[in-house]
Amino acid sequence: MKLNKGKFRVLHPGGKNPMHQSRLGADLLESSSAKKDLGVLVDGKLIMKQQCALVAKKASGPLGCIKKSVASSWREVLLPLYTALVRPHLDSCIHFWAHKFKKDEELMERVQLKAMKMIRGLEHLLYEERLRELGLFSLKKTRLRRDLINAYKYLQGGCQEEGARLNSVVPSDRTRGNGHKQKHRKFPLNMRKNFITLRVTEHWNRLPREAVDSPSLEIFKTRLDNVLCSLL
């Protein structure tokens, strides 16, 4: 099969990357500072800043169309439009690219805040209170929810063998805690702290015992939502 050289780019991640030139047969491949793969824009620094800006721009487009074309400001009209046309852009693959800087997080949360301000009757409420009133989570909580669900699947579901390699459970017979605490590992690189196996550990260890001991995934989701609703 003959490959198209124009569809290939070389990404050089890391500050100390030697920047070697790669070849496709006899042809040299061009280098790129960022490359989109399966809808996710990855740059050489792996900080996902460009991806956050791209997602915020994509989500702002349909939100602007809703604001201009829909006369009603009641939640029964705007909330279904927001959850169907805007929120999927903000949630798409977020557990993979996982923004790590607060300014990127605030950039995306502002899109959702604009949508909340369009709904009549919630003007006197704070952002988190508006979300609770509408039955929604912030983007930060949504990512945390997905991380915890994946952790449950690995540790309690049908992926125990894979979970044992990714997450180490600390054996303990103490009554304090949930009885399924994960071992918190330390790494010198800040980049590793953003991996799901590390960023989920602290939050998983704080879950109550009745949540982690849920007999099924659906029951775990229900109990997890109750826990997240109580968090600020």
How would you summarize what this structure contains?
The protein has 232 residues and is mostly helical. It has helices spanning 49-69, 75-85, 87-91, 94-97, 102-117, 127-134, 139-155, 160-166, 196-199, 201-206, 209-212, 217-229; strands at residues 10-11, 23-24, 27-28, 31-32, 34-37, 40-43. The protein folds into three domains: 5-32, no CATH class; 49-133; 143-229, no CATH class.
Word description of this protein:
By secondary structure, the protein is mainly α. It has three domains: 5-32, no CATH class; 49-133; 143-229, no CATH class. It has twelve helices and six strands. The chain has helices spanning 49-69, 75-85, 87-91, 94-97, 102-117, 127-134, 139-155, 160-166, 196-199, 201-206, 209-212, 217-229; strands at residues 10-11, 23-24, 27-28, 31-32, 34-37, 40-43. The chain has a two-stranded parallel ribbon with strand order 1-4. Strand 5 (34-37) and strand 6 form a beta hairpin. Helix 7 (139-155) packs across helix 8 (160-166) and helix 7 runs antiparallel to helix 12. It is globular. The N and C termini lie far apart (55 Å). The relative contact order is 0.08.
